[in-house]
Amino acid sequence: MNLKKLLNNLLKGRVPDKEKGEVEIHREVIERSPRQKFQYSDWLYNKKYVPYIKMLRDNYDLRKQDIEGTVRLHIFNSQASNGFYFTYSDIFGFENFIHLFEYFKDKVNDLDEYKVQSSHRSLSEINDLVKEKQVYYLKPRRDLNENERASQSFGNVHIEYVAINDIPSYVKLMANTYSDRSYQNAESFEELIDHVFYIDPDNIL
């Protein structure tokens, strides 16, 4: 174990036990530095996201047909949870990959009925590896009309970025719906997909 890892564990007052597997050594709210904010704003302004969103949309559609595309993308489908994740490859580059995580959060948050409920960045040890996980958790705004069932829109949306030893691993987006009778039925997950992958024709290079 290197000095940085040891100091992290001492500060947390926890010593990793390999028999227990993953041990969290640090957790904080996600806060971007001025430099990170500038880099992301530049990425958006110069429309650097366009080829990656187009590529992910194409690969998502192929995966629905059980066809392998250029990106390792996997789709989850169940009654209560729907989503997808895609793994890192050199086709993305480190900076683009973390920006895509931020981009998906912003796209969901752009929907009037959604807000960022919480966020966190954590570091964990798995044997000699360090796992970094960043998570945004977005919830629909609750309709206060007590005479009607509340809209759940697409449900709670969980967006996750994971890196191992500073190398990006995957980005995941999941929508988890309520079965509670106090909520209306959830909207189609495919409508959410259409929204997060939508590119204004004027922005197509």
SS element count, helices:
5
- Widest sheet: strand ordering: 1-4-5-6-7-3-2
CA radius of gyration is 19 Å
Percent of residues in β-strands? 25-35%
Counting helices, strands and paired strands, the structural category is alpha+beta
User: Quick check: average pLDDT?
Assistant: 88
The count of β-strands is 7
User: What is the 3D shape?
Assistant: globular
**Main beta sheet strand tally, sense and closure:** 7 strands, antiparallel
Distance separating the two termini: 47 Å
Question: Care to describe what's here?
Answer:
This protein is an alpha+beta fold and 205 residues long. The chain has one domain. Helix content is 30%, strand content 30%. It has five helices and seven strands, in the order αβααββαββββα. The chain has helices at 3-12, 34-45, 50-64, 94-110, 189-196; strands at residues 23-28, 73-77, 81-87, 114-126, 129-140, 156-164, 167-176. A seven-stranded antiparallel beta sheet has the order 1-4-5-6-7-3-2. β4 and β5 form a beta hairpin. The radius of gyration is 19 Å and the shape is globular. The termini are far apart.
